[in-house]
Amino acid sequence: MTRSLPFAGASLGLPGRYYTEPEIYQRELKTLWRSSWQWVGRVEDLAAPGDYLTCMLGEEPILVLRDEQGELVALHNVCPHRGARLLSEARGNCKMLQCPYHAWTFDRQGQLVAVLQPKWFPDLDKSQISLARARVECWGGFVFVNPDAEGESLGEYLAGYPDYLAGWGERWEDLREVARTSYEEPINWKFIVENYVEDYHFTIAHARSLVPLFEVQNIRTLPTGRHIPILVPYVSEPPADPATFRHWEQHRPSYQGFIFPNMMINTGKSGCSVWRVTPLGPERSRLETIHYQTPGQYAAEPYLPESWAEVMEEDFAVCRLLQQGVGSRAYQVRSLAEEHELGVSHFHQVLAQYL
Ligand code: FES
Ligand SMILES: [Fe+2]
Question: Which of 189, 229, 236, 305 has the fewest C-beta atoms lying within 10 Å of its C-beta?
Fold first, then answer.
């Protein structure tokens, strides 16, 4: 499925305008953010009939709800009368979906059931009108939506990634949210991804935070389909510093990695930290970090919120530097480390399929 990069030339990487120009940003919204599977939430957030969540996938408002049969339904959150956004709350429970503009009302399958002043619409056949469908599927308790009604299943899209994550050995369905933080940064979303999928920066940016914990030389980047699993082994000797020792594991590595286009997973001894990147503009992004634990992990060691703050700031600091350099005529990517920046070139190849 890989074809050569339209933007590959004398230098590696994307031209600088891919990180700054509104035109490129719009193209991304109209291609990859419209037609890929994206992580939107957890099944336990949608436990009862009528529970819903809303989200923006690219520029498209989407809602996911549980119907009376217990199935998840994904719909475009846009009224077919004149196009108003239907639901505005991030989460809630509904019996019906009623448009706030002229009160057209839809059932939980998105079927139009009532119209205000029906006599004013003599030719309207309600049975022919419903909300546009998106697709929803789950893996490991994570809910994914594809705004496109057609195309490959989530299983095909994930291309074996769940087999890699099974190595962690915990039941992914048992994870429950224990904390979340949201960051907004003046950084193009692709710089956040690129920094995440390479470990060449570890010894500089994370000299104090991650290097004492992980065997940095032996991190393995394992591109799989559109995605980038990253296996991170711990140092073999127990770290002396108690704060670092708390995260250290003897018998298994940290299963980390990127699921294109918006999800980053980081397993650890006492839980799993899952990050979601959302583009907010050509030079602005949101990163939500959500921390999960199984009941057993929570009982053994409840999550401590300070454990990730330092690493996040170390990464945002270097990404801000990239955003500051990218507008320069001198901006270029001259060479990439064979293994330890492999994720960057793989990500660019995947982007090329969409752009
Ligand atoms: S736009 Fe929704 S009822 Fe008119
Ligand atoms: Fe980093």
Answer: 236
